[in-house]
């Protein structure tokens, strides 16, 4: 039995037989797979980022300096979490009570810095959003209470003052700051 090859018509051209151009770092490196932003866009992005966030070390330095820091630090966690440990001088305002109590506890002319448990918790972000909706200027402290404690800063518990050793994965243990 003899068969005849079938003839097909296709809108797709046959694959090219040319050798592809050598790969560039942008196509092989996961960091550069998406091109970095142009400098002007990067300036806008990082300026906005810094307008919304403060890190633990900067908050600690501001609180330790002479005089008022120019902001109020707000712990938005539950009472049980607050009792377990909180930053000295912070105001306790659980996130669920912000709408009801922020106007009584906070001054709209003073910027607010919120914190929650950790970088894995978005409670501080939710609280910052609620406060912004109420007309407060607000930033979120990156790292939350976890990184405050991990960087070796003092905190208070229901039993009194406490302070742990600095975690060498978060801060240099033999320096006053990380140098950034």
Molecular structure report:
This protein is about 35% helix and about 15% strand. Strand 2 (about 70-75), helix 4 and strand 3 (about 90) form a beta-alpha-beta unit. The chain contains seven helices and seven strands, in the order H-H-E-H-E-H-E-H-E-H-E-H-E-E. The chain has about 180 residues and is of the alpha/beta class. The model is unreliable at about 1-15 (pLDDT under 50). The longest helix is centred in the first third of the chain and has 14 residues, at about 40-50. The strands form two sheets. A five-stranded parallel beta sheet has the order 1-5-4-2-3. A two-stranded antiparallel sheet has the order 6-7. It has helices at about 25-30, 40-50, 55-65, 80-85, 100-105, 125-135, 145-150, and strands spanning about 55, 70-75, 90, 110-115, 140, 155, 160.
The oligomerization state is single chain
Low-confidence stretches: 1-17
* N-C termini distance: 81 Å
Reading the helices and strands in chain order gives: HHEHEHEHEHEHEE
Proportion in helices: 25-40%
Order of neighbouring strands in the sheet with most strands: 1-5-4-2-3
Q: What is the structural class?
A: alpha/beta
Using the alpha-carbon principal axes, give the shape: globular
Query: What portion of the residues fall into strands of 2 or more residues?
Result: 5-15%
Number of helical segments with 4 or more residues: 7
Radius of gyration: 26 Å
The total strand number stands at 7
The major beta sheet can be summarized as:
5 strands, parallel
Q: Calculate the mean pLDDT score and round it.
A: 87
């Amino acid at each position: 039995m003899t068969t005849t090859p079938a003839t097909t018509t296709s809108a797709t051209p046959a694959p090219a037989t040319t050798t592809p151009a050598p790969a560039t770092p942008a196509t092989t490196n996961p960091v550069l797979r998406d091109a970095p932003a142009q400098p002007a866009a990067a300036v806008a992005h990082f300026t906005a980022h810094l307008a919304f966030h403060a890190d633990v070390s900067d908050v600690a330095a501001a609180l330790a300096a002479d005089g008022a820091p120019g902001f109020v630090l707000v712990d938005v966690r539950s009472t049980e979490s607050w009792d377990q440990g909180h930053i000295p001088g912070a105001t306790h305002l659980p996130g669920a009570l912000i709408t009801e109590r922020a106007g009584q506890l906070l001054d709209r002319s003073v910027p607010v810095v919120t914190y929650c448990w950790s970088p894995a918790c978005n409670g501080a972000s939710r609280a910052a959003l609620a406060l912004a909706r109420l007309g407060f200027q607000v930033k979120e402290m990156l790292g939350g209470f976890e990184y405050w404690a991990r960087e070796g800063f003092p905190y208070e518990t229901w039993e009194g003052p406490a302070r742990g050793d600095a975690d060498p994965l978060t801060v240099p243990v033999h320096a006053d700051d990380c140098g950034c």
